[in-house]
Design goal:
Blueprint lengths: L10 E14 H11 L3 E3 L9 E9 L4 H7 L4 E10 L5 E10 L2 E10 H13 L8 H13 L2 E15 L6 E11 L13 E2 L5 E8 L5 H9 L9 H8 L15 H6 L24
Antiparallel strand pairs: 1-6, 1-10, 2-7, 3-4, 3-7, 4-5, 5-6, 7-8, 8-9, 8-10
Helix pairs in contact: 3-4
């Protein structure tokens, strides 16, 4: 067994509520002003208060995971491998399971070389099992659904915690990019194309039990409504991988996007330290 997987501390399981919203950058600025007195920024944020995330998503050739989201399936699972920072040495292997608004996540963190080795074995069918429970489940899902690496989604994230209740986590993701030709998470050759216009951000609110009143007030002040947002689905549609009409266009006003598509310059991909496992337990 590889040394990187011997400790049970590499396993994390979460059971949380997750709500998503789409914001124009002007709304995002106002939102940060409103919640500023109640939150503190993630200590691992880089220049500009953001850090970079890149996620490799798995799906079947007929995009089963994509269509489960589009068709509104209440129960669904997806596999992804995620890295933090522009020069990461570790990766998260995650199984994200959703039932309606409730999200369960099982994951491990390990050196990226070991993750790539194990995922390659899983993909080829040579994985023998017993290396780690998360890998065992990933292998089962990959073989049953015939999953394969499909799309890399990358973006810059600003994260905030409630000053008094650490189970609440708020994230703002901007510069959503996607690519499907170069699926190496460590590659810097291709940044990809924008999955949504760069003047829009995705807001995610994650909590264990209930949303605090001050946050409800902030969301209502900006008239924000919960939306069925999927960064992976945005990527699939932006890349033209699904021949039918894109399903996410309704949540982005096309006229406004065309008018100020250059209003926000994408953040530079600054090298920031990858987070520790402890700092991402609520992510």
């Amino acid at each position: 067994m590889s040394q990187g997987f011997q400790s049970k501390e590499t396993v994390r399981t979460f059971n949380r509520f997750e709500l998503k919203y789409l914001l124009h950058y002007k709304q995002a600025r106002r939102f940060e002003e409103i919640i500023g007195a109640h939150v503190e920024s993630d200590q691992h944020a880089g220049p500009g208060g953001f850090y970079k995330i890149a996620s490799l998503y798995y799906d079947s050739r007929d995009l089963k995971c994509y269509w489960e989201k589009i068709d509104g399936e209440k129960y669904r699972r997806k596999i992804r491998v995620r890295t933090y920072g522009t020069h990461p040495d570790k990766a998260f292997v995650e199984i994200k399971q959703r039932y309606n608004l409730n999200v369960q996540k099982r994951r491990l963190i390990a050196p990226i070389d070991e993750v790539e080795e194990q995922m390659a074995k899983i993909q080829s069918g040579s994985y023998e099992g017993g290396v780690h429970p998360v890998y065992d489940e990933v292998f089962y899902l990959v073989q049953r659904e015939r999953l394969e690496p499909k799309v890399i989604i990358s973006y810059n994230r600003a994260a905030f915690f409630d000053r008094h209740h650490r189970d609440l986590r708020i994230t703002l993701d901007r510069n959503l990019r996607c690519r499907h030709l170069d699926l190496d998470l460590r590659s810097q050759r291709h940044r990809g194309k924008f999955a949504i216009p760069p003047q829009y951000l995705v807001l995610e609110v994650k909590f264990n039990h209930a949303m605090p009143r001050w946050l409800c007030t902030a969301l209502n002040c900006l008239d924000l409504q919960i939306q069925r947002i999927s960064k992976y689905c945005y990527g699939v549609e932006s890349l033209g991988m699904e021949p039918w009409q894109p399903k996410h266009d309704a949540v982005i006003p096309r006229r406004e996007a065309a008018v100020d598509a250059d209003a926000v310059h994408p953040l530079p991909d600054e090298p920031v330290p990858p987070p520790t496992e402890a700092s991402r337990e609520t992510h």
